[in-house]
């Protein structure tokens, strides 16, 4: 077990642990969470675990059913599309603001992050996703808008399950290579202060993202179940 002293409370630790496992897919959608077993595995009583579950429920990551039965929330094309639509609005705003507000340090951090990027394919898996997130976080922070940064970080977390689904359905080498090139182009535009162009490129980038791929896959699956 990780050092719980890093967290404010046992409830915070349980929340962070379960949230991470849900978002990474370690606890897949539909998994039943046996609360007493979980509490024992986390070396805590049931009370802080239930507090953590209430927080996860408020975020829509778990569903509390009758008789305190708790399951990891299902994934749906509706939720994926809603997350996609909000990112399609906010990510370009972050790029536009970054182009007008970035510092030399911001550019250095983005350059370092973009140098570590890998094609987001099944071959590179988690390593590529981690590097991808680090780049986008660097770009968000260059906007110097704390509210926007928090919103986008939360959206990124909630999109992770869908992003991983998209990773299982690679569209081929060309789109992922284009995706990699767009990150480098975004840094160039932001460094040059070309705000409108940075916003438009980010909008195109999100349009062809893994979440967009996941929406189509989920719609196909849902259609097959109801057909």
Automatic annotation (TrEMBL):
UniProt keyword terms in alphabetical order: DNA-binding, Transcription, Transcription regulation
Chain ranges of the HTH gntR-type domain: 8-75
InterPro entries to which the protein is assigned, alphabetical: GntR_C (IPR011711), TF_FadR/GntR_C (IPR008920), Tscrpt_reg_HTH_GntR (IPR000524), WH-like_DNA-bd_sf (IPR036388), WH_DNA-bd_sf (IPR036390)
PROSITE patterns: HTH_GNTR (PS50949)
Segments forming a coiled coil: none
Source domain of life: Bacteria
Name assigned to this protein: GntR family transcriptional regulator
């Amino acid at each position: 077990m990780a050092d719980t002293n890093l967290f404010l409370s046992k409830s915070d630790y349980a929340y962070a642990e379960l949230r991470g496992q849900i978002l990474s897919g370690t606890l897949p959608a539909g998994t039943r969470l046996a609360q007493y077993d979980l509490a024992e595995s986390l070396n805590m009583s049931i009370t802080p675990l239930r507090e953590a579950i209430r927080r996860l429920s408020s975020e829509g990551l778990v569903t509390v059913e009758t008789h305190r039965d708790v399951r990891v929330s299902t994934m749906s094309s509706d939720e994926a599309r809603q997350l996609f639509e909000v990112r399609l609005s906010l990510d370009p705003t972050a790029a536009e603001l970054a182009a007008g507000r970035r510092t030399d340090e911001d550019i250095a951090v983005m350059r370092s992050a973009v140098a570590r990027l890998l094609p987001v394919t099944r071959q590179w898996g988690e390593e590529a996703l981690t590097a991808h997130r680090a780049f986008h976080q660097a770009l968000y922070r260059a906007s110097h808008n704390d509210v926007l940064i928090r919103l986008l970080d939360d959206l990124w977390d909630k999109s992770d399950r869908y992003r991983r689904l998209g990773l299982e359905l690679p569209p081929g080498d060309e789109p992922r290579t284009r995706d990699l090139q767009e990150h480098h182009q975004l840094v160039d535009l932001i460094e040059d202060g070309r705000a409108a162009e940075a916003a438009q490129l980010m909008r195109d980038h999100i349009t062809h993202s893994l979440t967009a791929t996941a929406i189509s896959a989920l719609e196909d699956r849902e259609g097959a179940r109801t057909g």
